[in-house]
């Protein structure tokens, strides 16, 4: 054999076998090779970025690196994430990159729960556009998009995506709408599918930004699954590239100017974040290094910022240019920044109303207020810009301006700017129905039939509606059953646990942690003064008087409005000025004014409905189809129609679920006791 034959290598591969543990899961050898190569490439890039970061900070990197971003290979946009090596975190480290803040949220079942409609309604609220008008919805090809059609297309989607795009230099962009369309077109390219999206530009804050809502299906009608790292970092990189493309890269002079503007800010800044990241056990050494000429400007900025933090008690200088950062630095500055934003929001809302208040009179409530607040709504907006919870700014009759967040939108759906509301502490009192259930339970079993017999024997149920009375207790038990507290054995037996009262109290405390809110009047003071109905001002006039009203702010305005309303009532013959200067009001003034307004509103509706209106008498049983509501100064009223007539009766929240259904209730003393969910047979 020659030497050439000895060095010649002739591979003889055998059959390629699968390592799949189960039948039916065999993958080709080529697919497995690509998968392993992709995994190794991603892990290598992650180790490289971690090593580079450790080297730049002067620290030794860890021996083993666990790849961050568990969803890097899943969802649309994964290929972009891998190509840019932006998994597990990313910063605007490229020279000249324009900063853009992207906030994202993923909402399940938004179309079915009504959250999508509520969010779309609030991002289009008044005062968000550049000219202070209502926000305008737009899409990729429409300057005035149809929000209802968008909601209808996404009503059955499994989820919905929400984004806030906030370029640092948004005010310098020539066309924020065009910028958003270019960004979403680039996102579609990265994801490999067309997106169904709408957006609204907001100019109601110091930084213009865009709200983008994306329905949860792709162009093929499948669930839209977007890679997690693309959501966290990919959209931000694309947005930054577009901003830099239009405005040009950030120069060193411009960057220095922006950083210098942050030195005296009472919030967490980029300088603070950089120092926190580089500090060694909260110590940062900024002593001069003669050879580091490029870092001299950064050193100067940090020393000036540390001087500010030292005055705030958040940093301590132990030696010249050697500082220790307080462990309270980040949370304190974040809180100060949030409170500063709140104060500016409150001042802006007051200026829009033509009012000025001393910031010392501002009261920011982190939870439900301990004592009730009464005042007019001067601002109503989303608390976190991506969710559904609302924040109200209320100009109180106590002379203070209140900021209350985390409010359920359903509780203030009827409240508008200028409406009068009452915000009180959460209702923690035990329900009478719960106490009745405990009292009727025998050996841990509650029987509705036994409760019905007891109610009939005692005869204390108004109107003799004993079945409706017991049905209300059964509905309460149904709700507690869904919460895992009560157990239904059969139609006439419910198991009540020994700790029923404590568990119900804990359940209600969790549900009622939010503030308790009542809309006292949807009409502002000017509309109440000349109204023909029973207004909130009338209730103050015949009630406790003006002892709770401050002598300044909204309290002073209420005093003036009460004087004008009093003169209106005297002119209409509903009040008389006595010799001693006091005013005597018509007997049953509130009921009389309400009847008068209901009659007038009924006649107006009758002309539109081509049905005659008939007022419901006290004690009358009202039956018919609940077709809608009407808002009057006397309150909110339900429209109940029959085939030949309709009537208006006081509204209650429980009836909302019965829209376009047959209802029945008894009118009693200005309210209605509804009997809902009961089967009624035909009578003879």
CATH architecture of the largest domain: 2-Layer Sandwich
Poorly predicted ranges? 18-26, 42-72, 678-684
Q: Helical amount among residues, as a percent range? A: 25-40%
Kindly state the number of beta strands.
24
CATH class assignment of the largest domain: Alpha Beta
Compute the number of structural domains: 7
Major beta sheet summary: 6 strands, mixed
- Rounded to the nearest angstrom, the distance between the terminal CA atoms is 116 Å
The fold-level CATH name of the largest domain is BirA Bifunctional Protein, domain 2
Over the alpha carbons, how many angstroms does the gyration radius reach?
33 Å
Structure description:
The protein is an alpha+beta fold and 684 residues long. It has seven domains: 32 residues, no CATH class; 170 residues, BirA Bifunctional Protein, domain 2 (2-Layer Sandwich); 75 residues, no CATH class; 93 residues, no CATH class; 80 residues, Arc Repressor Mutant, subunit A (Orthogonal Bundle); 64 residues, no CATH class; 84 residues, OB fold (Dihydrolipoamide Acetyltransferase, E2P) (Beta Barrel), CATH 2.40.50.140. It has a six-stranded mixed beta sheet. It has a five-stranded antiparallel beta sheet with strand order 1-3-5-4-2, with helices on both faces. A five-stranded antiparallel beta sheet has the order 22-21-20-23-24, with helices on one face. The protein is globular, with a radius of gyration of 33 Å. The C terminus is likely disordered.
């Amino acid at each position: 054999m020659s030497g050439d034959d000895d060095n010649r290598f002739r591979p003889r591969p055998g059959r390629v076998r699968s390592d799949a543990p189960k039948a039916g899961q065999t993958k080709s050898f080529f697919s497995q090779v690509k998968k392993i190569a992709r995994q190794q490439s991603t892990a290598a890039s992650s180790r490289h970025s971690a090593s580079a970061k450790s080297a730049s900070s002067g620290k030794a990197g860890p021996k083993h690196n666990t790849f961050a971003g568990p969803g890097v290979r899943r969802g649309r946009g994964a290929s972009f994430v891998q190509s840019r090596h932006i998994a597990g975190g990313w910063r605007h480290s490229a020279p000249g990159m324009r900063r853009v803040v992207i906030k994202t949220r993923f909402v399940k079942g938004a179309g079915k729960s009504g959250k999508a409609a509520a969010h779309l309604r609030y991002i289009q609220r008044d005062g968000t556009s550049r000219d202070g008008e209502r926000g305008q919805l737009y899409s990729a090809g429409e300057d005035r998009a149809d929000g209802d059609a968008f909601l209808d297309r996404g009503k059955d989607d499994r989820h919905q995506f929400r984004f806030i795009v906030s370029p640092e230099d948004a005010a310098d962009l020539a066309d924020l709408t065009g910028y958003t369309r270019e960004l979403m077109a680039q996102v579609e390219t990265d994801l490999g599918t067309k997106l169904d999206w709408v957006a609204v530009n907001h100019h109601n804050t110091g930084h213009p930004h865009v709200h983008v809502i994306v329905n949860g299906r792709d162009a093929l009608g499948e669930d839209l699954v977007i890679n997690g790292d693309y959501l966290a970092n990919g959209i931000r990189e694309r947005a930054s590239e577009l901003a830099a493309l239009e405005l040009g890269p950030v120069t060193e002079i411009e960057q220095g100017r922006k950083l210098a503007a942050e030195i005296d800010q009472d919030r967490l800044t980029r300088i603070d974040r950089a120092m926190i990241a580089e500090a060694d056990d909260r110590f940062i050494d900024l002593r001069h290094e003669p050879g580091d000429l490029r870092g001299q400007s950064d050193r100067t900025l940090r020393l000036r910022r540390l001087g500010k933090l030292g005055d705030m008690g958040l940093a301590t200088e132990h030696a010249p240019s050697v500082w220790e950062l307080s462990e309270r630095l980040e949370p304190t500055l974040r809180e100060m920044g949030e409170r500063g934003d709140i104060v500016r929001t409150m001042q802006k809302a007051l200026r829009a109303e033509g009012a000025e208040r001393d910031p010392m009179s501002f009261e920011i409530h982190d939870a439900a207020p301990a004592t009730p607040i009464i005042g007019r709504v001067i601002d109503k907006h989303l608390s976190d810009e991506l969710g559904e919870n609302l924040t109200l700014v209320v100009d109180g009759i106590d002379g203070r301006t209140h900021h209350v967040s985390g409010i359920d939108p359903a509780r203030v759906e009827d409240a508008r700017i200028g409406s009068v509301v009452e915000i009180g502490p959460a209702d923690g009192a035990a329900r009478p129905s719960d106490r009745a259930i405990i009292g009727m339970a025998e050996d841990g079993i509650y029987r509705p039939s036994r409760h019905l017999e007891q109610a009939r024997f005692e005869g204390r149920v108004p109107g003799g509606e004993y079945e409706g009375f017991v049905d209300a207790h059964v509905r309460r038990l149904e709700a507690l059953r869904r919460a895992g507290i009560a157990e239904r054995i059969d139609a006439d037996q419910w198991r009540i646990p020994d700790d029923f009262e404590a568990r119900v109290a804990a359940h209600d405390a969790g549900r009622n942690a939010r503030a308790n809110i009542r809309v006292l009047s949807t009409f502002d003071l000017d509309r109440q003064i000349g109204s023909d109905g029973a207004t909130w001002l009338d209730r103050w006039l015949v009630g406790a008087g003006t002892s709770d009203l401050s002598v300044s702010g909204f309290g002073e305005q209420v005093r003036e409005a009460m004087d004008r309303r009093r003169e209106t009532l005297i002119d209409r013959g509903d009040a008389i000025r006595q010799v001693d200067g006091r005013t005597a009001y018509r007997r049953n003034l509130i009921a009389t004014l309400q009847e008068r307004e209901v009659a007038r509103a009924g006649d107006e509706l009758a002309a539109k409905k081509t049905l005659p209106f008939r007022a419901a008498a006290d004690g009358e049983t009202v039956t018919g189809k609940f077709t809608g509501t009407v808002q009057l100064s006397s309150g909110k009223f339900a429209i109940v129609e029959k085939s030949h007539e309709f009537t208006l009766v006081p509204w209650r929240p429980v009836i909302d679920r019965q829209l376009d259904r047959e209802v029945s209730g008894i009118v009693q003393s200005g309210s209605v006791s509804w009997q809902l969910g009961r089967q009624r047979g035909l009578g003879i």
